[in-house]
Amino acid sequence: MGRVIAGLLLVLAVAHLVAEPAGAITCQDVSSTIGSCVAYVTGKQPRPTAACCAGVRRLNSLASTTAARRTACNCLKSREGRIKNIRDQNLSALPGLCAVSLPFRLSTRTNCNSIP
């Protein structure tokens, strides 16, 4: 489950999440945006739900800066341990299945500091 969260956090990092007035993304923002993706990234659902994809697209549109994407990624990584059985191939497929283009591969092994 932790790997799922990490992967989702990476998606959120790339996705542009709801920002506070100063433009800061919080881990709470990231979690609430992609929480519906856990079943897919853990293999409990064969495809991401519409709610999951809506969250991925929202996060992508809100994380508009390198700093915001890296923050979201680090939030996901910090919560990685809470989600068991993340399937890296599902995580990697998530952006494409949700029609989101990312400049890096989504993976539980993504280095957040390398995100552009």
**How many DSSP-defined strands?**
0
Beta-strand percentage? under 5%
Rg result: 12 Å
Taking the sheet with the most strands, its summary is: none
Distinct helical segment count:
6
Instruction: Specify the helix fraction band.
Output: 40-55%
Category by helix and strand content: mainly alpha
Low-confidence stretches: 12-22
Order of helices and strands: HHHHHH
Keywords:
single chain, 116 residues, mainly alpha, 6 helices
Structure report:
The chain has 116 residues and is an all-alpha fold. It has helices spanning 2-14, 27-34, 38-41, 50-62, 66-78, 88-97. Helix 2 (27-34) packs antiparallel against helix 4 (50-62).
Write a brief structural summary.
Helices cover 53% and strands 0% of the residues.
Topology of this structure?
Elements: H1 2-14, H2 27-34, H3 38-41, H4 50-62, H5 66-78, H6 88-97
